Amino acid sequence: MTRIFISYSRQDKTIAEYIAAELHIRGAEVFIDYQKIIGGENFIGRLGHEVAACNFFVLLLSPRSVASKWVQAEVAWALHNNKPIVPVLLEPTSMVDFFFLINVQQIDFTRWSVDGKVDEAVGKLAVALELPAQPTRAEPRPELLVQANPSIEAVEPEPEATLTPAFARSDLSELFMTAVEVASEDPEQAIFLYQRILEIDPHYMRGQAQEFVRHEEQRLKSARLARMLAQAQAALKVGEWSRVKQIGQDMLALDQSHSEAERIVAIATKNAECEPLYEQAVIAAERGRWKAVTTLMRDIRETCPDYGDPAGLLRPIRSELIALLHEQTKLKGHKKPVNCVAFSPDGSLLASASGWTVKLWEIPERRRLTTLSGHRNYVLSLAFSPDGSVLASGSEDKKIKLWEMPEGLEVGTLIGHKDAVYSIAFSPDGSVMASSSQQVIKLWKMSERQELVTLDDHEGSVTSVSFSPNGSLLASAAGDGTIKLWEIPSGLKVATLKGHNYPVRAVTFSPDGALLASASADNTIKLWGLG
Q1: HSE on the CB side for 30, CA within 13 Å?
Q2: pTM
Q3: Which domain holds residue 462?
Q4: Which of 54, 92, 228, 475 is most exposed, with the fewest beta carbons within 10 Å of its own?
Q5: What is the pLDDT of residues 215-265, one digit of tens each?
Q6: Could you give the strand order of the β-sheet that contains 423-426, starting from the edge strand earlier in sequence?
Q7: Where are the beta strands (DSSP E) in 390-472?
Q8: Pick from 396, 392, 394, 409: which is nearest to 344 by CA?
Q9: Any idea what the CATH number is for the domain that residue 428 is in?
Q10: Average pLDDT of 303-321?
Protein backbone atom coordinates (compact mmCIF):
# COMPACT_ATOMS: atom_id res chain seq x y z
CA MET A 1 0.00 0.00 0.00
CA THR A 2 1.26 3.48 -0.89
CA ARG A 3 2.18 5.47 2.23
CA ILE A 4 1.83 9.24 1.98
CA PHE A 5 2.94 11.92 4.43
CA ILE A 6 1.18 15.29 4.20
CA SER A 7 3.12 18.33 5.43
CA TYR A 8 1.08 21.50 5.92
CA SER A 9 0.43 24.56 8.04
CA ARG A 10 -2.16 23.99 10.75
CA GLN A 11 -4.01 26.99 9.32
CA ASP A 12 -4.54 24.96 6.13
CA LYS A 13 -6.06 22.08 8.08
CA THR A 14 -9.37 22.02 6.16
CA ILE A 15 -7.90 21.39 2.73
CA ALA A 16 -5.26 19.04 4.22
CA GLU A 17 -8.04 16.88 5.67
CA TYR A 18 -9.92 16.90 2.37
CA ILE A 19 -6.86 15.80 0.37
CA ALA A 20 -6.06 13.10 2.91
CA ALA A 21 -9.58 11.69 2.62
CA GLU A 22 -9.52 11.77 -1.20
CA LEU A 23 -6.22 9.86 -1.25
CA HIS A 24 -7.54 7.39 1.33
CA ILE A 25 -10.51 6.37 -0.85
CA ARG A 26 -8.01 5.76 -3.67
CA GLY A 27 -6.27 3.12 -1.59
CA ALA A 28 -3.45 5.11 0.06
CA GLU A 29 -2.36 5.01 3.68
CA VAL A 30 -2.17 8.69 4.56
CA PHE A 31 -0.34 10.14 7.55
CA ILE A 32 -1.75 13.44 8.78
CA ASP A 33 -0.05 14.02 12.13
CA TYR A 34 -2.83 14.80 14.61
CA GLN A 35 -4.87 11.78 13.49
CA LYS A 36 -2.26 9.10 13.89
CA ILE A 37 -0.32 10.09 17.00
CA ILE A 38 -1.72 8.59 20.17
CA GLY A 39 -1.58 10.04 23.63
CA GLY A 40 1.76 9.70 25.42
CA GLU A 41 3.69 8.99 22.19
CA ASN A 42 6.83 10.99 21.35
CA PHE A 43 5.53 13.47 18.78
CA ILE A 44 8.90 14.37 17.22
CA GLY A 45 10.06 10.78 17.02
CA ARG A 46 6.83 9.59 15.42
CA LEU A 47 6.95 12.32 12.79
CA GLY A 48 10.54 11.46 11.91
CA HIS A 49 9.61 7.77 11.58
CA GLU A 50 6.59 8.52 9.36
CA VAL A 51 8.59 10.73 7.01
CA ALA A 52 11.31 8.09 6.73
CA ALA A 53 8.74 5.36 6.01
CA CYS A 54 6.55 7.15 3.46
CA ASN A 55 6.58 6.52 -0.29
CA PHE A 56 5.66 10.11 -1.13
CA PHE A 57 5.95 13.38 0.79
CA VAL A 58 3.11 15.77 -0.15
CA LEU A 59 3.90 19.41 0.64
CA LEU A 60 0.95 21.84 0.75
CA LEU A 61 2.31 25.23 -0.32
CA SER A 62 0.84 28.44 1.03
CA PRO A 63 2.33 31.65 2.49
CA ARG A 64 1.70 30.08 5.91
CA SER A 65 3.40 26.75 5.26
CA VAL A 66 6.56 28.17 3.65
CA ALA A 67 7.02 30.40 6.70
CA SER A 68 6.48 27.53 9.14
CA LYS A 69 9.62 26.27 10.87
CA TRP A 70 7.75 23.04 11.50
CA VAL A 71 7.05 22.46 7.80
CA GLN A 72 10.62 23.46 6.93
CA ALA A 73 11.97 20.89 9.35
CA GLU A 74 9.71 18.16 7.95
CA VAL A 75 10.85 18.99 4.40
CA ALA A 76 14.50 18.95 5.49
CA TRP A 77 14.02 15.49 6.96
CA ALA A 78 12.27 14.30 3.78
CA LEU A 79 15.21 15.56 1.72
CA HIS A 80 17.65 13.85 4.04
CA ASN A 81 15.77 10.58 3.55
CA ASN A 82 15.60 11.04 -0.27
CA LYS A 83 11.80 11.05 -0.32
CA PRO A 84 9.97 12.16 -3.50
CA ILE A 85 8.42 15.54 -2.71
CA VAL A 86 5.14 16.39 -4.50
CA PRO A 87 4.29 20.10 -4.09
CA VAL A 88 0.62 21.10 -4.01
CA LEU A 89 0.02 24.83 -4.57
CA LEU A 90 -2.83 26.13 -2.40
CA GLU A 91 -2.06 29.82 -2.94
CA PRO A 92 0.61 31.78 -4.88
CA THR A 93 3.61 32.09 -2.60
CA SER A 94 7.32 32.85 -2.57
CA MET A 95 9.56 29.83 -3.11
CA VAL A 96 12.70 31.50 -1.81
CA ASP A 97 13.01 28.89 0.96
CA PHE A 98 12.24 26.03 -1.40
CA PHE A 99 14.53 26.72 -4.40
CA PHE A 100 15.04 23.02 -5.03
CA LEU A 101 11.34 22.57 -5.88
CA ILE A 102 11.13 25.27 -8.56
CA ASN A 103 11.64 22.73 -11.36
CA VAL A 104 9.19 20.23 -9.85
CA GLN A 105 5.70 20.29 -11.37
CA GLN A 106 3.24 21.72 -8.84
CA ILE A 107 -0.31 20.38 -8.54
CA ASP A 108 -2.55 23.45 -8.74
CA PHE A 109 -5.18 23.58 -5.98
CA THR A 110 -5.59 27.37 -6.06
CA ARG A 111 -9.27 27.08 -7.07
CA TRP A 112 -9.95 25.58 -3.65
CA SER A 113 -10.17 29.02 -2.05
CA VAL A 114 -12.13 30.47 -5.02
CA ASP A 115 -14.92 28.01 -5.77
CA GLY A 116 -13.91 24.70 -4.18
CA LYS A 117 -13.66 22.94 -7.56
CA VAL A 118 -10.70 20.64 -7.11
CA ASP A 119 -11.80 17.35 -8.69
CA GLU A 120 -9.39 17.71 -11.60
CA ALA A 121 -6.56 18.71 -9.28
CA VAL A 122 -7.23 15.73 -6.99
CA GLY A 123 -7.05 13.42 -10.00
CA LYS A 124 -3.70 14.90 -11.10
CA LEU A 125 -2.34 14.58 -7.57
CA ALA A 126 -3.43 10.95 -7.38
CA VAL A 127 -1.70 10.15 -10.67
CA ALA A 128 1.48 11.89 -9.47
CA LEU A 129 1.36 9.65 -6.39
CA GLU A 130 0.88 6.56 -8.59
CA LEU A 131 -2.70 6.13 -7.38
CA PRO A 132 -5.89 5.71 -9.47
CA ALA A 133 -7.31 9.00 -10.72
CA GLN A 134 -10.77 7.95 -9.48
CA PRO A 135 -11.80 6.51 -6.09
CA THR A 136 -11.48 2.72 -5.77
CA ARG A 137 -13.33 2.30 -2.49
CA ALA A 138 -17.12 2.39 -2.19
CA GLU A 139 -17.13 5.25 0.29
CA PRO A 140 -18.89 8.63 0.06
CA ARG A 141 -16.77 11.38 -1.49
CA PRO A 142 -15.74 13.58 1.44
CA GLU A 143 -16.62 17.18 2.00
CA LEU A 144 -14.42 17.29 5.10
CA LEU A 145 -12.42 14.57 6.76
CA VAL A 146 -14.17 13.46 9.99
CA GLN A 147 -11.72 13.14 12.83
CA ALA A 148 -11.70 9.50 13.93
CA ASN A 149 -10.58 9.98 17.52
CA PRO A 150 -11.66 13.20 19.26
CA SER A 151 -9.42 12.46 22.24
CA ILE A 152 -6.39 13.12 20.06
CA GLU A 153 -7.07 16.86 20.40
CA ALA A 154 -5.46 16.64 23.83
CA VAL A 155 -2.06 15.71 22.38
CA GLU A 156 -2.05 18.00 19.31
CA PRO A 157 1.14 20.12 19.29
CA GLU A 158 1.29 23.74 20.30
CA PRO A 159 0.33 26.45 17.78
CA GLU A 160 2.97 26.99 15.10
CA ALA A 161 3.94 30.41 16.38
CA THR A 162 5.50 28.83 19.49
CA LEU A 163 6.45 25.44 18.09
CA THR A 164 10.15 24.73 17.53
CA PRO A 165 11.10 21.22 16.39
CA ALA A 166 13.76 19.53 18.48
CA PHE A 167 15.69 17.05 16.38
CA ALA A 168 18.43 15.11 18.11
CA ARG A 169 22.00 16.46 17.68
CA SER A 170 22.95 13.38 15.66
CA ASP A 171 20.11 14.16 13.25
CA LEU A 172 21.39 17.72 12.81
CA SER A 173 24.89 16.42 12.14
CA GLU A 174 23.56 14.17 9.39
CA LEU A 175 21.63 17.09 7.86
CA PHE A 176 24.76 19.25 8.02
CA MET A 177 26.92 16.65 6.25
CA THR A 178 24.23 16.16 3.63
CA ALA A 179 24.27 19.92 2.95
CA VAL A 180 28.05 19.90 2.57
CA GLU A 181 27.90 16.97 0.14
CA VAL A 182 25.25 18.48 -2.16
CA ALA A 183 26.53 22.09 -2.09
CA SER A 184 28.45 21.94 -5.37
CA GLU A 185 25.67 20.25 -7.38
CA ASP A 186 22.60 21.74 -5.69
CA PRO A 187 23.41 25.00 -3.88
CA GLU A 188 19.74 25.81 -3.24
CA GLN A 189 19.18 22.59 -1.34
CA ALA A 190 22.41 23.06 0.62
CA ILE A 191 21.47 26.57 1.73
CA PHE A 192 17.97 25.37 2.61
CA LEU A 193 19.40 22.65 4.86
CA TYR A 194 21.93 24.99 6.48
CA GLN A 195 19.23 27.53 7.32
CA ARG A 196 16.89 24.89 8.72
CA ILE A 197 19.67 23.56 10.99
CA LEU A 198 20.28 27.03 12.42
CA GLU A 199 16.57 27.63 12.91
CA ILE A 200 16.31 24.37 14.84
CA ASP A 201 19.49 25.04 16.85
CA PRO A 202 21.06 28.53 16.46
CA HIS A 203 24.00 27.43 18.66
CA TYR A 204 24.84 24.33 16.63
CA MET A 205 28.61 23.70 16.52
CA ARG A 206 29.00 26.13 19.43
CA GLY A 207 27.87 29.01 17.23
CA GLN A 208 30.51 28.43 14.56
CA ALA A 209 27.89 27.12 12.14
CA GLN A 210 26.34 30.59 11.80
CA GLU A 211 29.53 32.10 10.39
CA PHE A 212 30.05 29.05 8.16
CA VAL A 213 26.53 29.36 6.73
CA ARG A 214 27.00 33.10 6.07
CA HIS A 215 30.19 32.26 4.16
CA GLU A 216 28.43 29.48 2.20
CA GLU A 217 25.53 31.76 1.27
CA GLN A 218 27.97 34.25 -0.22
CA ARG A 219 30.09 31.57 -1.90
CA LEU A 220 27.09 29.86 -3.51
CA LYS A 221 25.28 33.07 -4.40
CA SER A 222 26.42 33.24 -8.04
CA ALA A 223 25.58 29.58 -8.68
CA ARG A 224 22.13 30.01 -7.15
CA LEU A 225 21.44 33.12 -9.24
CA ALA A 226 22.63 31.39 -12.42
CA ARG A 227 20.35 28.41 -11.81
CA MET A 228 17.38 30.63 -11.01
CA LEU A 229 18.00 32.70 -14.15
CA ALA A 230 18.01 29.52 -16.27
CA GLN A 231 14.72 28.48 -14.65
CA ALA A 232 13.21 31.90 -15.33
CA GLN A 233 14.29 31.81 -18.97
CA ALA A 234 12.77 28.36 -19.39
CA ALA A 235 9.51 29.60 -17.84
CA LEU A 236 9.54 32.63 -20.16
CA LYS A 237 9.56 30.33 -23.20
CA VAL A 238 6.39 28.55 -22.10
CA GLY A 239 4.57 31.66 -20.90
CA GLU A 240 4.54 31.01 -17.14
CA TRP A 241 4.55 34.71 -16.28
CA SER A 242 3.62 34.44 -12.60
CA ARG A 243 6.42 31.90 -12.07
CA VAL A 244 8.90 34.08 -13.97
CA LYS A 245 7.97 37.07 -11.83
CA GLN A 246 8.30 35.06 -8.62
CA ILE A 247 11.72 33.70 -9.61
CA GLY A 248 12.86 37.20 -10.56
CA GLN A 249 11.70 38.59 -7.22
CA ASP A 250 13.48 35.77 -5.41
CA MET A 251 16.64 36.61 -7.35
CA LEU A 252 16.31 40.25 -6.30
CA ALA A 253 15.96 39.10 -2.70
CA LEU A 254 19.45 37.61 -3.11
CA ASP A 255 20.87 40.49 -5.16
CA GLN A 256 18.95 43.77 -5.22
CA SER A 257 21.02 45.13 -8.13
CA HIS A 258 20.66 42.10 -10.43
CA SER A 259 19.77 43.80 -13.75
CA GLU A 260 18.64 40.62 -15.51
CA ALA A 261 16.27 39.82 -12.63
CA GLU A 262 14.81 43.32 -12.89
CA ARG A 263 14.39 42.82 -16.64
CA ILE A 264 12.55 39.50 -16.40
CA VAL A 265 10.27 40.82 -13.63
CA ALA A 266 9.38 43.76 -15.89
CA ILE A 267 8.75 41.42 -18.86
CA ALA A 268 6.62 39.04 -16.79
CA THR A 269 4.61 41.91 -15.31
CA LYS A 270 3.96 43.39 -18.76
CA ASN A 271 3.17 40.03 -20.37
CA ALA A 272 0.68 39.22 -17.64
CA GLU A 273 -1.39 42.13 -18.95
CA CYS A 274 -1.63 40.38 -22.35
CA GLU A 275 -2.42 36.92 -20.95
CA PRO A 276 -6.22 37.35 -21.32
CA LEU A 277 -5.72 38.26 -24.99
CA TYR A 278 -3.58 35.19 -25.57
CA GLU A 279 -6.13 32.97 -23.85
CA GLN A 280 -8.72 34.32 -26.29
CA ALA A 281 -6.34 33.54 -29.17
CA VAL A 282 -5.97 29.94 -27.92
CA ILE A 283 -9.75 29.54 -27.80
CA ALA A 284 -10.07 31.08 -31.27
CA ALA A 285 -7.44 28.67 -32.65
CA GLU A 286 -9.27 25.68 -31.14
CA ARG A 287 -12.44 26.83 -32.92
CA GLY A 288 -10.64 27.44 -36.23
CA ARG A 289 -11.20 31.20 -36.17
CA TRP A 290 -7.85 32.08 -37.73
CA LYS A 291 -8.70 35.66 -38.59
CA ALA A 292 -9.37 36.30 -34.91
CA VAL A 293 -6.11 34.54 -34.02
CA THR A 294 -4.03 36.77 -36.28
CA THR A 295 -5.81 39.92 -35.06
CA LEU A 296 -5.26 39.01 -31.41
CA MET A 297 -1.62 38.04 -32.00
CA ARG A 298 -1.01 41.37 -33.72
CA ASP A 299 -2.51 43.23 -30.75
CA ILE A 300 -0.39 41.18 -28.34
CA ARG A 301 2.83 41.91 -30.22
CA GLU A 302 2.07 45.61 -30.28
CA THR A 303 1.33 45.74 -26.55
CA CYS A 304 3.71 43.05 -25.27
CA PRO A 305 6.59 42.65 -27.76
CA ASP A 306 8.28 39.99 -25.58
CA TYR A 307 5.20 37.78 -25.24
CA GLY A 308 6.09 35.29 -27.98
CA ASP A 309 3.81 32.35 -28.82
CA PRO A 310 3.98 29.92 -25.83
CA ALA A 311 1.22 27.61 -27.08
CA GLY A 312 2.63 27.53 -30.61
CA LEU A 313 -0.56 28.85 -32.21
CA LEU A 314 1.22 29.99 -35.36
CA ARG A 315 3.74 27.16 -35.73
CA PRO A 316 1.65 24.84 -37.93
CA ILE A 317 1.25 25.87 -41.57
CA ARG A 318 -2.49 25.74 -42.11
CA SER A 319 -4.51 26.59 -45.19
CA GLU A 320 -6.71 28.80 -43.04
CA LEU A 321 -3.71 30.91 -42.04
CA ILE A 322 -2.30 31.02 -45.56
CA ALA A 323 -5.62 32.34 -46.80
CA LEU A 324 -5.25 35.29 -44.43
CA LEU A 325 -1.85 36.34 -45.77
CA HIS A 326 -1.97 39.69 -47.49
CA GLU A 327 0.44 42.25 -48.85
CA GLN A 328 1.37 44.83 -46.25
CA THR A 329 3.91 47.00 -48.03
CA LYS A 330 5.60 47.23 -51.41
CA LEU A 331 9.25 48.27 -51.25
CA LYS A 332 10.19 50.26 -54.31
CA GLY A 333 13.63 51.42 -55.38
CA HIS A 334 15.30 48.75 -57.51
CA LYS A 335 15.53 49.30 -61.26
CA LYS A 336 16.43 45.71 -62.19
CA PRO A 337 15.12 42.25 -61.16
CA VAL A 338 15.68 41.40 -57.48
CA ASN A 339 17.87 38.28 -57.21
CA CYS A 340 17.84 37.62 -53.44
CA VAL A 341 16.77 39.00 -50.06
CA ALA A 342 17.88 38.41 -46.44
CA PHE A 343 16.61 39.51 -43.01
CA SER A 344 19.01 40.46 -40.23
CA PRO A 345 18.86 38.05 -37.22
CA ASP A 346 16.82 40.51 -35.12
CA GLY A 347 14.47 41.32 -38.01
CA SER A 348 15.26 45.03 -37.94
CA LEU A 349 16.86 45.12 -41.42
CA LEU A 350 16.10 43.65 -44.82
CA ALA A 351 18.76 43.43 -47.53
CA SER A 352 17.81 43.03 -51.19
CA ALA A 353 20.10 42.55 -54.21
CA SER A 354 19.36 43.74 -57.72
CA GLY A 355 21.75 44.35 -60.55
CA TRP A 356 25.13 45.41 -59.13
CA THR A 357 23.73 46.95 -55.92
CA VAL A 358 22.31 45.99 -52.54
CA LYS A 359 19.66 48.03 -50.77
CA LEU A 360 19.03 48.12 -47.00
CA TRP A 361 15.49 48.59 -45.69
CA GLU A 362 14.49 49.44 -42.11
CA ILE A 363 11.83 47.13 -40.70
CA PRO A 364 9.06 47.64 -39.54
CA GLU A 365 9.11 51.23 -40.84
CA ARG A 366 9.52 49.81 -44.38
CA ARG A 367 11.79 52.66 -45.45
CA ARG A 368 15.01 52.48 -47.42
CA LEU A 369 18.14 53.26 -45.44
CA THR A 370 20.90 53.16 -48.03
CA THR A 371 22.21 51.59 -51.21
CA LEU A 372 25.43 49.55 -51.14
CA SER A 373 27.53 49.95 -54.28
CA GLY A 374 30.84 48.28 -54.96
CA HIS A 375 30.31 45.15 -57.01
CA ARG A 376 31.12 45.14 -60.71
CA ASN A 377 28.51 42.59 -61.76
CA TYR A 378 25.21 41.10 -60.64
CA VAL A 379 24.83 40.34 -56.90
CA LEU A 380 23.59 36.75 -56.54
CA SER A 381 23.74 35.96 -52.79
CA LEU A 382 23.33 37.65 -49.39
CA ALA A 383 23.85 36.56 -45.78
CA PHE A 384 23.92 38.34 -42.40
CA SER A 385 26.37 37.28 -39.71
CA PRO A 386 24.67 35.70 -36.62
CA ASP A 387 25.11 38.88 -34.55
CA GLY A 388 23.82 41.06 -37.41
CA SER A 389 26.94 43.24 -37.46
CA VAL A 390 28.06 42.23 -40.98
CA LEU A 391 26.29 41.63 -44.29
CA ALA A 392 28.10 39.53 -46.90
CA SER A 393 27.23 39.78 -50.60
CA GLY A 394 28.42 37.45 -53.38
CA SER A 395 28.52 38.49 -57.02
CA GLU A 396 29.18 37.43 -60.58
CA ASP A 397 32.33 39.56 -60.29
CA LYS A 398 33.77 36.56 -58.33
CA LYS A 399 34.09 38.63 -55.13
CA ILE A 400 32.47 38.67 -51.70
CA LYS A 401 32.05 42.04 -50.07
CA LEU A 402 31.56 42.64 -46.35
CA TRP A 403 29.41 45.55 -45.18
CA GLU A 404 29.20 46.92 -41.61
CA MET A 405 25.65 47.15 -40.29
CA PRO A 406 23.54 49.19 -40.02
CA GLU A 407 25.59 51.99 -41.61
CA GLY A 408 26.35 49.94 -44.73
CA LEU A 409 30.06 50.81 -44.86
CA GLU A 410 32.23 48.46 -46.92
CA VAL A 411 34.77 46.89 -44.56
CA GLY A 412 36.35 44.16 -46.67
CA THR A 413 36.50 42.19 -49.91
CA LEU A 414 37.23 38.46 -50.07
CA ILE A 415 38.94 37.38 -53.26
CA GLY A 416 39.60 33.77 -54.27
CA HIS A 417 36.75 32.42 -56.35
CA LYS A 418 37.33 32.04 -60.09
CA ASP A 419 33.62 32.17 -60.98
CA ALA A 420 30.38 33.76 -59.77
CA VAL A 421 29.55 33.37 -56.06
CA TYR A 422 26.17 31.61 -55.87
CA SER A 423 25.65 31.06 -52.15
CA ILE A 424 26.97 32.35 -48.79
CA ALA A 425 26.39 31.05 -45.24
CA PHE A 426 27.80 31.91 -41.80
CA SER A 427 28.48 29.31 -39.12
CA PRO A 428 26.21 29.68 -36.05
CA ASP A 429 28.98 31.36 -34.03
CA GLY A 430 30.01 33.59 -36.94
CA SER A 431 33.63 32.44 -36.88
CA VAL A 432 33.52 30.75 -40.31
CA MET A 433 31.84 31.72 -43.56
CA ALA A 434 31.22 29.36 -46.48
CA SER A 435 30.82 30.51 -50.08
CA SER A 436 30.13 28.47 -53.23
CA SER A 437 30.92 28.87 -56.89
CA GLN A 438 31.41 26.59 -59.92
CA GLN A 439 32.23 23.14 -58.41
CA VAL A 440 34.04 24.63 -55.38
CA ILE A 441 33.32 25.78 -51.84
CA LYS A 442 35.58 28.05 -49.85
CA LEU A 443 35.74 28.37 -46.08
CA TRP A 444 36.83 31.74 -44.67
CA LYS A 445 38.12 32.57 -41.17
CA MET A 446 36.16 35.72 -40.35
CA SER A 447 38.39 37.03 -37.57
CA GLU A 448 41.24 37.40 -40.06
CA ARG A 449 39.13 37.48 -43.24
CA GLN A 450 41.36 34.86 -44.79
CA GLU A 451 40.64 31.69 -46.72
CA LEU A 452 40.87 28.52 -44.62
CA VAL A 453 40.38 25.76 -47.18
CA THR A 454 38.88 25.00 -50.60
CA LEU A 455 36.48 22.06 -51.01
CA ASP A 456 36.31 20.82 -54.60
CA ASP A 457 34.68 17.38 -54.79
CA HIS A 458 31.51 18.38 -56.71
CA GLU A 459 31.21 17.86 -60.47
CA GLY A 460 28.63 20.60 -60.98
CA SER A 461 28.07 24.21 -59.89
CA VAL A 462 27.50 24.45 -56.11
CA THR A 463 24.29 26.44 -55.81
CA SER A 464 23.60 26.25 -52.04
CA VAL A 465 25.53 25.84 -48.77
CA SER A 466 24.12 25.51 -45.23
CA PHE A 467 25.64 25.01 -41.76
CA SER A 468 24.16 22.61 -39.21
CA PRO A 469 22.76 24.31 -36.06
CA ASN A 470 25.79 23.27 -33.98
CA GLY A 471 28.22 24.33 -36.70
CA SER A 472 29.93 20.94 -36.95
CA LEU A 473 28.73 20.17 -40.52
CA LEU A 474 28.35 22.03 -43.79
CA ALA A 475 25.95 20.75 -46.46
CA SER A 476 26.41 21.67 -50.12
CA ALA A 477 24.05 21.13 -53.06
CA ALA A 478 25.17 21.07 -56.67
CA GLY A 479 24.20 20.70 -60.29
CA ASP A 480 25.62 17.17 -60.34
CA GLY A 481 22.49 16.03 -58.43
CA THR A 482 24.38 15.30 -55.19
CA ILE A 483 24.55 16.70 -51.68
CA LYS A 484 27.79 16.53 -49.77
CA LEU A 485 28.45 16.86 -46.04
CA TRP A 486 31.71 18.38 -44.82
CA GLU A 487 33.26 18.42 -41.36
CA ILE A 488 33.88 21.89 -39.96
CA PRO A 489 36.41 23.46 -39.58
CA SER A 490 38.69 20.78 -41.11
CA GLY A 491 36.76 20.61 -44.39
CA LEU A 492 36.93 16.82 -44.58
CA LYS A 493 34.15 15.23 -46.65
CA VAL A 494 32.08 12.88 -44.49
CA ALA A 495 29.26 11.82 -46.86
CA THR A 496 27.77 12.11 -50.34
CA LEU A 497 23.97 11.89 -50.55
CA LYS A 498 22.54 10.63 -53.85
CA GLY A 499 18.89 10.34 -54.81
CA HIS A 500 17.90 13.32 -56.94
CA ASN A 501 17.79 12.86 -60.71
CA TYR A 502 18.40 16.51 -61.59
CA PRO A 503 20.45 19.43 -60.18
CA VAL A 504 19.89 20.19 -56.49
CA ARG A 505 19.01 23.88 -56.09
CA ALA A 506 18.85 24.35 -52.31
CA VAL A 507 19.71 22.61 -49.06
CA THR A 508 18.97 23.45 -45.40
CA PHE A 509 19.10 21.88 -41.92
CA SER A 510 16.14 21.63 -39.52
CA PRO A 511 16.52 23.76 -36.35
CA ASP A 512 17.44 20.71 -34.22
CA GLY A 513 19.90 19.40 -36.83
CA ALA A 514 18.15 16.03 -37.09
CA LEU A 515 16.97 16.52 -40.68
CA LEU A 516 18.41 17.89 -43.90
CA ALA A 517 16.04 19.05 -46.64
CA SER A 518 17.03 19.30 -50.29
CA ALA A 519 15.13 20.78 -53.24
CA SER A 520 15.77 19.70 -56.82
CA ALA A 521 14.85 20.47 -60.40
CA ASP A 522 13.30 16.97 -60.53
CA ASN A 523 10.23 18.52 -58.80
CA THR A 524 10.99 16.81 -55.47
CA ILE A 525 12.03 17.71 -51.95
CA LYS A 526 13.91 15.04 -50.05
CA LEU A 527 14.36 14.77 -46.28
CA TRP A 528 17.53 13.10 -45.01
CA GLY A 529 17.77 11.77 -41.44
CA LEU A 530 21.05 12.59 -39.74
CA GLY A 531 20.45 10.90 -36.40
Answers
A1: 24
A2: 0.45
A3: 338-529
A4: 92
A5: 877 888 888 888 888 888 888 888 888 889 988 998 898 889 999 999 999
A6: 423-426, 432-436, 441-445, 450-455
A7: 390-395, 399-404, 409-415, 423-426, 432-436, 441-445, 450-455, 462-467
A8: 392
A9: 2.130.10.10
A10: 74
